[in-house]
Every structure is written in C-alpha cells, then in structure tokens.
Specification:
Keywords: Coiled coil. The chain is mostly helical. It has three helices and two strands; from the N terminus they run E-E-H-H-H. The protein has a two-stranded antiparallel ribbon. The model has no long low-confidence stretch (mean pLDDT about 80).
Length: about 160
C-alpha cells in the first residue's frame, strides 16, 4: 500500500510483497525521455535537419542508411509498378477477347438479319437488291472525308472588304 507521506511503495499480490522505489520510476522516465529525444534527433537527421552536430563518420553512416532505405523504396516501387503493368496487360488481353467476341456477335446478328430479309423478300414475291452491310468500323474515317471538297469553288465568290 502506498501512502502520500511514504517515499516507497509496496504492492501486495497474493501474500507477496513487492517493493517499488520511486527512484525506479524516475530512472525509467529519464530513460524514456532520452529515447524519445534520440528518435526525434534521428528523424531530424533523416530529414536533413540539424546535421551540424554530426561528425564525418556519423554523416557517412547516415548516408549509408539513407541509401539502403532509398534502395528498398525503389525496389518496392518497381515491384508494384511491374505488378500493375502485368495486371494491365492481362486486362488488355481480356478486353481484346471481349471485343472479338462482340464483333463476332455483331457479324452473326447482321448475317441473321440479312437471311431474314432475304427470306421475307422471297415470301413477298418481290425482288429487291440486298444491301450488303459494311463492316462496323468506327475507328476509321472514310477516305473521301479526308479529301478536300471540290464541290464549292472559291473562284466564283467575291472577297469581302472592310470599309
């Protein structure tokens, strides 16, 4: 039991007395304060601050630790980058496969529509020309759109003048 006037503390646990001196706690607190100060100084040094207090050997040691840390960081970054590239390549293959499947389905539907149109034309007794569908390709512009339009001649137009 601890009293406010006593300079020591006793702890009673199952009929066992443990004497804990206040000096022990003071020593522990001082050790912890020193560790906190050391960690804070180390963080400052890693950030490149408060380097004037370091010797050449300490600076060299710090530089080596920083280079090892940077090496590990770059290694991990490259590992993640390569994993992302691999994932994207797999995704690209999946999308290409999906695209081919969808193009095949479109072509199949167009053939079915053509056959259905031909059958309905035969049933009606009319002879129509069947229009063959162009392959669906929205990624390309027709060639004639890229050529200049010669229908409108600029020679017949009078120039405008500002007065």
């Amino acid at each position: 039991m601890c009293s406010s006037s006593s300079k020591c503390c006793e702890l009673i646990l199952a009929d066992t007395y443990i004497y804990i001196s206040p000096q022990f706690y003071q020593q522990e607190a001082s050790k912890l304060r020193r560790q906190i100060r050391d960690v804070q100084n180390m963080n400052r040094h890693i950030l490149g601050e408060a380097l004037s207090s370091l010797s050449f050997k300490e600076l060299k040691n710090l530089e080596g630790r920083l280079e090892k840390g940077i090496s590990r960081i770059r290694s991990k970054k490259n590992e993640l980058l390569f994993a992302e590239i691999e994932f994207m390549q797999k995704r690209e293959v999946e999308l290409q496969n999906d695209n081919m499947y969808l193009r095949a389905k479109i072509a199949e539907n167009e053939r079915a529509q053509q056959q259905q149109q031909q059958q309905s034309n035969m049933i009606q007794g009319s002879v129509y020309q069947t229009v063959t569908s162009q392959p669906y390709n929205r990624n390309f512009l027709p060639v004639n759109l890229l050529e200049p339009n010669n229908e409108y001649s600029t020679q017949d137009q009078t120039p405008l003048q500002l007065v």
